[in-house]
Amino acid sequence: MKRLRNRIIYFTMVAFSVVTVLIIIYAFRHRDADDLVYLIFNSYALLAVILAFLFVLYWQRVRRKRLISEQKRLRHLVGNLTAPAMLWDDDLTLAALNDALCRVAELDPKALPPAEQLVPRLFGMERIDDAAIRDIVLTKNHEYVFPVGEDRQRSIIWNTSAVHTDEEGVTYFLSIGVDLENIRLMESELRSYSKRLAASENRNMLTMELTDVGILLIELKSRKLFPSEKLQRMIGLSGEHWTPEDLRSRVYPMDLALFDRHVQIIRSHVADYMNKTQVLELRVSGADNRYRWYSYRFKALQLADGGGIVIGGSVIDISKEKEKDAQIEQIAYEDAVTAIPNRNKLMMMGQELYLCTRDLAVSYWVIVMDIDRFHLINDTCGYASGNELLRSFADCLKQELTEGGFGARISGDNFALILRDTGDEKLPETVIRHIQKKLAAQAVGKFENRSLTCSAGYARMPQDGSSFEQVMEHAEFALSTGKYASGSITGYTEEMHDTIIRESNLEKELRAALERNELLLYYQPKIALESGAVTGLEALVRWRKADGTMVPPEEFIPVAERTPLIMQITRFVIREACRQAKEWQKKGLPEIVMSVNMSGMDFYQDNVCNVVAGALKKNTLPPRFLEIELTESLALKDIDLTVSRMKQLRILGVQIAMDDFGTGYSSLSYLRSLPFTMLKLDRSFVMHMADDLVVQEIVSAVVRIAKAKGIRTIAEGVETPEQAQQLRLLGCDYVQGFLYGKPMSAEDTEAFIRRNRTERKVY
Length: 763
Ligand code: C2E
Ligand code: MG
Ligand code: MG
Prior knowledge:
This protein is α/β, with parallel strands linked by helices. It has five domains: 2-69; 81-179, PAS domain (Beta-Lactamase); 182-324, Beta-Lactamase; 336-494, Alpha-Beta Plaits (2-Layer Sandwich), CATH 3.30.70; 504-756, TIM Barrel. The strands form four sheets. It has an eight-stranded mixed beta barrel with strand order 16-17-19-20-21-22-23-24, surrounded by five helices. A five-stranded antiparallel beta sheet has the order 2-1-5-4-3, sandwiched between helices. Bound molecules: ligand C2E and magnesium ion (2 copies). One magnesium ion is lined by residues 538, 597, 629, 659.
């Protein structure tokens, strides 16, 4: 690369010199030439264009090389892992897999088939099934039965986390598999070890067997710990016997909960340890006052001489092994951007902590947080600023940590914080407010002074769930219920549980419904008040279940809006609405504007304009025949991004309506700042217009102001001729409501439009 760059610089210098010399010669020969200035200008301009072209070429090569070397690094890391591992990009295309996985799947790593055959073969599918792969790979702690050869199976648990986002914005996911076969082998090894240990049921023999490692015996009756000399040297703690407190004072603060839990079990349920060898891995301050990892492999023994129960076992320094695993740990368990634990680590530590809470009667707060409008920073200030913000957020989390707690980045702009419950019910709220304050302060000067805040949901463990995973889900659910307002803080309540169950069932059903094509569109006509002609149709989604029952959108859209399912639904609605509009145009029906509804989640997707443009192009539908209905709550959420997104849509040529105007914190100022082309007065206005003069005044003022801005108005929910007449008097342009037509199937809509050509009612 350097050589290429030097060549370009060399070429630049030579080319400039040559051009300059040629111009000087020309100037001497034609002293009074009129076009000398033009010649100079043109020559340098041409040269500049050639150079710019060369630099672009060079820059592209540099970028490509960087990307390739980044991918190589990731592949290398995956290859070095001893556990089965796969690397995916964010389209869930398999980018690499390692030898360990090939061994498990009985594949030859040197002769791997192409991805289209490899992936189905790996997962025992007929062909690539994206949804199933997503399920296997992205579901946390998913146990997956792996087909091996013709008739055998291996069980693997996959843990997946995002490990890297490259300059192109492609995120790579690393899935690390725990082969349950290995765990079974380990178990049998442990069993044979414990048999040997059981055979040597007295202190001397035990000591002899394990002379090369530290020994620790715990006498239950006296609560005394007897360390071997070697162990005293290892830990740097002398004395023939220690108290549990002596040892505890040396334990790493993050491992204290685990230590206490084992002490508690030894005290109250030692029987649990009688027949099984246990392994406890802890960081303890060593002789050099540095924390080192020690593994204590122990079991409880009944001494033969009637001397009561002792716990005995070996202590080995496993710091080296831990160090060896550090790189693997780092990519598997550490978030690459913020260098704090990632979701995998959070789940692992959370599960351990959950067990501790049960045994020790302590509790923890589990807080999940989401930076509001994070995409805005990414979109407008660039990835580098986005990453900087994530790192700042991680720093804020670290500052709030207390003993035994920890923070993690779960995904994107999602973070979790685990805090010891001190009995103060207000603790989560206080801590979150702290973080919000610090975040707001970050915005000043940095991040273009955009106001920054975060929303949070929290739950308590063990009270709020039967596992750590469930507590997390509950905290995440609390977050999602409060997410409409930025800066919201929502605690999980029992009542939320039923909603979660109901919604998760509905979500599953809806996912299947999408696959089975059970969604369809109904259309409701929009009528011009003056002429009574159909000028538009609103496409309204319906779910027709296999048994024929129709589910209204109000029942499933809000649930879908909490998940990425809404984007699939919207994509379907836009494509189908454009297809249908074009079909009717081809059949020679009058020109009609087709409206579709869009949710906040769709609207903020980066690719929303591509989806719209794609649907228009595929159906060759001119953009002016498509209208997108957005609610004002959406504009409220993020005014800057809303404006820029709407402008992009307007540039495409589609129309935009403000739906349900008047239901939220309506503000006429939106009409000034947002490029709407239509304003839809909500049904509530129409309902109260007849008997409420104030409502009439409001409608009249809104219509007037909209008109002055060149925005047309439509009233929704018109049910009586009186309402239509009144709206006409107030200057409203269009109406939509049961008075004219309910939402109906495509077939009925077509018949309605045909009838409307000849029979029109004008009120
Ligand atoms: P919306 O966009 O405000 O749609 C108008 C709703 O008002 C429709 O209900 C329609 O049937 C109902 N409506 C129309 N005229 C009258 C009337 O004269 N009287 C009464 N009482 N009701 C009337 P629908 O189809 O149940 O849709 C409800 C909401 O569901 C929609 O409200 C919209 O917010 C959402 N929705 C529907 N389809 C979609 C979709 O494809 N995508 C998204 N994101 N949301 C959708
Ligand atoms: Mg609508
Ligand atoms: Mg509406």
